[in-house]
């Protein structure tokens, strides 16, 4: 595997699914089939916050992701956060995600608490933590989605 990229986006649209699709487009991953995994970072893999994904392969292929995503009907607000930390010497690490209809400070605080709890379950010595947060205001009459994804490598054929 090459790099795990942290991407994020927000968007509004007339339906829940349309706002999710538009948020994926804002993050650069709208043309892939996402497969969610739990939150373990393999050893010796780089994690890089890029904001918007580069071209990761042909449309319709599978992307493995850890996803923090929240959608709300406006008016309101929505936030998603993804935190991560690696064990020493490029060993394995963890992602933790939180998403809710709340402000960015709240999801950032909760995701870091979750990450700390996950670290306490393991016998690894962890380094510093990082966090990415996406927040958006939802206007009346539309749905708004905010998301942060950890995208593992590049796309792969589904069949």
UniProtKB/TrEMBL annotation:
Essential cofactor(s): pyruvate
SUPFAM superfamilies documented for this protein: Pyruvoyl-dependent histidine and arginine decarboxylases (SSF56271)
Enzyme Commission designation: 4.1.1.19
Keywords linked to the UniProt accession: Decarboxylase, Lyase, Pyruvate
GO terms (BP aspect): L-arginine catabolic process
Pfam family, one: PvlArgDC
PKD domain residues: 124-150
Catalytically driven reaction(s): L-arginine + H(+) = agmatine + CO2
Entries under InterPro entries matching the protein: PKD_dom, Pyr-dep_his/arg-deCO2ase, Pyr-dep_his/arg-deCO2ase_sand, Pyruvoyl-dep_arg_deCO2ase
Similarity comment: family membership: Belongs to the PdaD family.
Protein name listed in UniProt: arginine decarboxylase
Organism: Natrialba magadii (strain ATCC 43099 / DSM 3394 / CCM 3739 / CIP 104546 / IAM 13178 / JCM 8861 / NBRC 102185 / NCIMB 2190 / MS3)
Lineage: Archaea, Methanobacteriati, Methanobacteriota, Stenosarchaea group, Halobacteria
